[in-house]
Write a sequence for this structure.
């Protein structure tokens, strides 16, 4: 055992970098987390995937120690995240609109570095985040991508073993996004761990070793990205037709079909067989559109699949299935 | 590379961070941040200075309550300036940093929470000291104000110490106001409160209802303590003023605590 942690469970000699056990978090009448289990192991990049409002940020805040679970436990390296000492081994990148604008990149990094027992040299952090040329520039004069790089540098500066990244690439252009992805992958290659929240399936797929899908405060699915992708990928087909949704819902591969105004909207795992069938049965069909299903729709599909496996725990959304 | 080799290659992180250095850097950058922000530093220093210069040139040689007006107004405008630095630095600063998510990131870092607040107090004190010094120089140059060094020093010390209750009050505003509304809310409280406390004009020339209202205003009590140093106060006991300011501090810190707790439980995502 390399890092003895004094106050921890003795059962596990080397506690995981981050874990939630049965975490429940309520805000007034709203239950943001309804019993979430999550573990990030050493050297692993876990993507917490879910639509806005799924509970991703609530889960993150428990691990950051900025809020406490109502039930269950949150642990960082086996310790309570609310203890500042536990947080010296973690770096965080949160959804932040601005940091003090009149301070320069290097000044921000110098201040954050002072919080940690063994910070990285500032020049190394600047290089890792691609900020060498901008060290003297005030935050207020940085572009959106550069600002995000500074926030990443602030997360790195303490030389953490765990990075927690809350929607790190929201609002970034494609090039900036890929640069950040590379930096994150470089971090994991050095044996460190990352928890990343995102609502882009593509991002979870590109980066992670494991995807945890969260929706309405519950873990819906967990597994390798390819497996999750196969379960959630789908097509949305929309058309004006004389066929009724109830009829279409029974076809092979169709997850749901419903009225959407005058049109019928069908969600299916693949588009072609359904489109072929639609055209064969209704030659008068018009305004046919096919699009990739959104993540929200993919989640509906997931909840639907789960309902089929365990009908007793069917969430309310499945009521929309095939009905109209 | 696996976790074993990584850890073997990495020295154990021992608790070698330097608390004094964290506090010093935090205060340094808090001060630099605001000094470089003209929207804060300019009005905070210039408003009391311009007002004081105008009144002291016009009425500096008059007497107010048996004291040279330049000295009387050095006490009241100094109080006005120190309170402004504390209310805006703390109130607007905390509200903006909360709204931007910056405070959340700081709280998620291992920063000792005290460093954040100590830095803002230190910054308020430094701006307060700058204001009192500028006013003193203006008084000496424009109205020929001459005070015994002890009185000058005493005035400065009272006003520095008096900044703390208003740091606390600013913090209470900062934890409850939104980042956009904070400057307006602070102004709406600060300016009328200053007028009603006799910081702009001596209470003796204000309407009677304001004179009766004044003892209920926190700045009144700091101004009276400052005026006591130059012998121009209304003659109430020191403990009354200190007690009133201590009460303001306690209530403000209670409100701030509740505000910060509410923040931690705010839902998003």
């Amino acid at each position: 055992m390399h890092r003895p942690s004094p106050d921890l469970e003795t059962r596990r000699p080397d506690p995981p970098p981050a874990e939630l056990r049965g975490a429940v978090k309520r805000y007034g009448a709203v239950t943001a987390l309804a019993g979430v289990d999550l573990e990030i192991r050493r050297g692993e990049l876990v993507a917490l995937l879910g639509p806005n409002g799924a509970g991703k940020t609530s889960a993150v805040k428990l691990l950051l120690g900025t809020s406490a679970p109502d039930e269950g436990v949150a642990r960082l390296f086996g310790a309570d995240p609310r203890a500042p000492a536990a947080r010296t081994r973690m770096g965080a990148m949160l959804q932040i609109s601005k940091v003090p604008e009149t301070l320069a990149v290097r000044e921000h990094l110098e201040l954050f570095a002072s919080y940690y027992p063994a910070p990285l040299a500032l020049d190394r952090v600047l290089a890792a985040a691609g900020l060498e040329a901008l060290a003297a520039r005030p935050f207020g004069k940085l572009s959106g991508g550069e600002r995000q790089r500074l926030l990443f540098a602030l997360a790195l500066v303490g030389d953490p073993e765990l990075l927690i990244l809350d929607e790190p690439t929201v609002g970034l252009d494609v090039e900036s996004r890929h640069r950040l992805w590379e930096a994150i992958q470089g971090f994991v290659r050095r044996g460190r761990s990352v928890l990343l929240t995102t609502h882009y399936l593509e991002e979870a797929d590109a980066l992670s070793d494991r995807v945890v899908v969260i929706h309405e405060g519950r873990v819906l699915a967990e597994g390798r990205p390819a497996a999750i992708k196969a379960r959630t990928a789908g097509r949305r087909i929309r058309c004006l037709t004389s066929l009724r949704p109830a009829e279409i819902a029974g076809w092979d591969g169709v997850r749901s079909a419903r009225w959407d105004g005058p049109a019928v909207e069908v969600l299916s795992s693949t588009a072609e067989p359904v489109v072929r069938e639609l055209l064969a049965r209704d030659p008068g069909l018009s305004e046919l559109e096919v699009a990739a299903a959104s993540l929200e729709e993919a989640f509906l599909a997931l909840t639907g699949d789960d309902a089929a496996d365990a009908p007793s725990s069917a969430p309310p959304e499945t009521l929309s299935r095939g009905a109209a | 590379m696996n976790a074993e080799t990584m850890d073997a290659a990495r020295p154990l992180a021992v608790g070698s961070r330097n608390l004094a250095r964290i506090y010093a850097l935090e205060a340094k950058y808090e001060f630099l941040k605001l000094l470089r922000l003209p929207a804060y530093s300019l009005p905070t220093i210039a408003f009391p200075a311009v007002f004081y210069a105008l009144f002291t040139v016009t009425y500096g040689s008059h007497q107010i309550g048996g004291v040279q007006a330049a000295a009387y107004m050095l006490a009241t405008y100094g109080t006005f300036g120190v309170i402004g630095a504390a209310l805006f630095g703390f109130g607007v600063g905390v509200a903006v940093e909360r709204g931007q998510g910056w405070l959340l990131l700081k709280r998620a870092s291992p920063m000792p929470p005290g460093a954040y607040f100590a830095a803002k107090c230190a910054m308020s004190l430094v701006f307060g000291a700058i204001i009192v010094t500028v006013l003193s120089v203006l008084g000496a140059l424009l109205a020929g104000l001459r005070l015994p060094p002890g009185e000058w020093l005493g005035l400065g010390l009272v006003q520095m110490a008096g900044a703390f209750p208003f740091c606390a009050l600013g913090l209470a505003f900062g934890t409850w106001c939104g980042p956009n509304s904070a400057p307006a809310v602070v102004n709406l409280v600060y300016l009328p409160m200053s007028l009603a406390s006799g910081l702009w004009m001596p209470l003796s020339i204000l309407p009677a209802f304001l004179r009766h209202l004044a003892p209920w205003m926190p700045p009144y009590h700091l101004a009276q303590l400052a005026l006591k140093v130059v012998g121009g106060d209304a003659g109430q006991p020191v403990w009354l003023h200190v007690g009133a300011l201590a009460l303001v501090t306690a209530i403000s810190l209670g409100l701030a605590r509740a505000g910060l707790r509410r923040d931690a439980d705010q839902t998003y995502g």
